[in-house]
Amino acid sequence: MENNKQMRKWLDDMNLPHPLVIAGPCSAETEEQVLKVAHDLKDTDVNYYRAGIWKPRTRPGNFEGVGAIGLKWLQKVKEETGLKTATEVANRTHVDLALEHDVDLLWIGARSTVSPFIVQEIADALKGTDKVVLVKNPVNPDLSLWLGAVERLNSANIEKLGVIHRGFSTYEKTKYRNIPEWQLVIELQTRYPDLPIINDPSHITGKRNMIFDVSQTALDLNFDGLMIETHCDPDNAWSDAAQQVTPDRLVQIMKNLRIRKETDEQAEYNSKLSNLRAQIDVIDNQLIEIMGKRMKVSDEIGALKKKRNVAVLQSNRWNAILGNMILEGEQRGLSEEFVLKMFKAIHQESINHQEKIINT
Ligand SMILES: O=C(O)C(=O)C[C@]1(C(=O)O)C=C[C@@H](O)C=C1
């Protein structure tokens, strides 16, 4: 699949003065709840009203969604408020029912994106549709799998496509429910700059008090929109209570977010930017040169070790280097996370160099 300008046509055609906003409850619970939230969101920035109809739950026994009856409530939402509607589909039956009830935007959830069989079934069921179809990232940070799903839909002649970034599962507990791995989405944007990308801070954070910050980071990274779970009584929601916000809070979040433009034509800005970018180019070249030098020294160590039949990995020395560099980095305003990542990559490259020498 090649990037092309057509990819973002459906979004550009909406001519929005703000990022695309998809909001509504995690799950449709009752007709009253669905309609109440929709009326509260009617005259806000919200473009699509979302509600989960079928809920994929980690463990059995939890609320698994109201099912097809909820689609009737979504139809009522459209009639009464004019809001377009959106829901998650996970198989052919869901797709058929959603289309029957004229849902305007369908998304494939993270647990479905991991399965090419499911994605293909959904793509076949949606073949040629003019509805908007968005693909959430798979639960594991696998860019090819994510893009593979988009490609399947693209091959089924679905033109109004996009992706939703909802973060990735980890074994270790972090402050996020699903870690954002921003680097991965930056790579996606580099490869497909015209593929609309929506951020889902509700699932990334799992906590309503972190939603603003993640939304702002997403907008700073040129995301095209936000999907934020919104409920009239979040604490008593039947699913994902901790991460839902009230309609009032959503309006506040949208008001406080700083929306940045992609670029600016002003001459002074551009001349200063070119100057600073020239400095970055020089420094980047120095970095490459210095890395090359470091690897040459490592090659010499490799040759020495070969002669004396000594192992490549020297954990004590390596730990000492890491400890020193974290301290040095701190003094220069570099985070421990960055220093660790950078030096682990350098160490690996150094080991690869020595492996080549020691084994030839
Ligand atoms: O000091 C060594 O023995 C090296 O081989 C150098 C080096 C490094 O690149 O800094 C590489 C591998 C070892 O695990 C430790 C350190």
UniProtKB/TrEMBL annotation:
Name of the featured protein: chorismate mutase
Keywords, sorted A to Z: Coiled coil, Transferase
EC number(s) on file: 5.4.99.5
One annotated GO biological process: chorismate metabolic process
GO molecular function annotation: chorismate mutase activity; transferase activity
Pfam family, one: DAHP_synth_1
Transmembrane parts of this sequence: none
Superkingdom of source: Bacteria
